[in-house]
Amino acid sequence: MPPPLSNTHLRTPFGFDELLTYLTREILRSQPENIYEFCLTTCQQLINERNNGILSDELIKLDLTSYSLENQEE
What we know:
The chain has helices at 16-30, 35-51, 69-72. By secondary structure, the chain is an all-alpha fold. It has one domain (16-68).
């Protein structure tokens, strides 16, 4: 049986906070009727932009040296 979440320190993957912030802002701006479909479409668009090298700087940390694994091991 997995341990209870209250006793577990969860770490978010690198870039997850930026993705959630971006999605939240776009959802609030667009007010979609179907939030799940909107998220799917938006994430597919972001994947296409990433693959074409045109992903928003907002979602890419250009200075990866400021990120360290120590931040994830707290």
